[in-house]
């Protein structure tokens, strides 16, 4: 037990697989633990390096094991997979994790605090409510279209129709009217919940200094700022803004071989929610852009030779790099980036 230096844990709901090796790489422990025995088991070990996949409950276990003095590192599952030998099972997975965490060039996932996780859950729930609202609105419009009533696209247009036209539809069957009113009540509840989550995010953004710094940049609003801070923290896991933009999937995907470089569309790797927020922010900058700003020259030259969507992604890439520099306290936005987006 005293010779253990590296431990790989294959996380699960109830049964955890442990693979531990000493400084020479020899296997010391290979066993399964029940959930209630995990913390007790590691409390009896000397401080060591523990590797886990960044999956469900990984951040919770990493925080708990770090409190016991261990060094805990999380890895993306796709980076661990090449180290898994033969068939996939819990024993081989734990061995692969133990091997991967000791690699010097392995990429690790930043450990999130409880506050970061809580804020991210608010973002995820808000995003889910928006999807539910969109689906419900589409069902309402489709139901009305079956009876010859066409409602314009959008939540506001539907709300206006409910306020002005619903009471005048006397020719509709009573069963349908009751059905529409029930769907309207569900839609109102979703709108209420959405407003509550918006206020939660607003409060978190106002109380966080990093969020306030990020919101100085056009194209980065309260949603993008709070989601970015909750996801990457100070951004020190990335060596540069280019790494952050690549992690967000805002760079071209490569298919190169034989010395020939071939760039495809954006890779779409990493956090899709954050990538979508940055792209929406860049689209808003282009839509409301002042022609007198110095950014117009750069975007104008790019717009002359590329599609509009390519320009939007290029600007989103640049916004991500600016955001990393601000998070890492490498520069001040007004001093060094005013010539890019002002």
TrEMBL record:
The keyword Coiled coil applies. PANTHER family: PUTATIVE TRANSPOSASE FOR IS117-RELATED, TRANSPOSASE FOR INSERTION SEQUENCE ELEMENT IS1111A. It comes from the Bacteria. InterPro entries: Transp_IS110-like_N, Transpos_IS110, Transposase_20. Keywords: Coiled coil. This is IS110 family transposase. NCBIfam families: transpos_IS110. Residues 180-207 form a coiled coil. Residues 7-147 form the Transposase IS110-like N-terminal domain. Residues 211-292 form the Transposase IS116/IS110/IS902 C-terminal domain. The keyword Lipid biosynthesis does not apply.
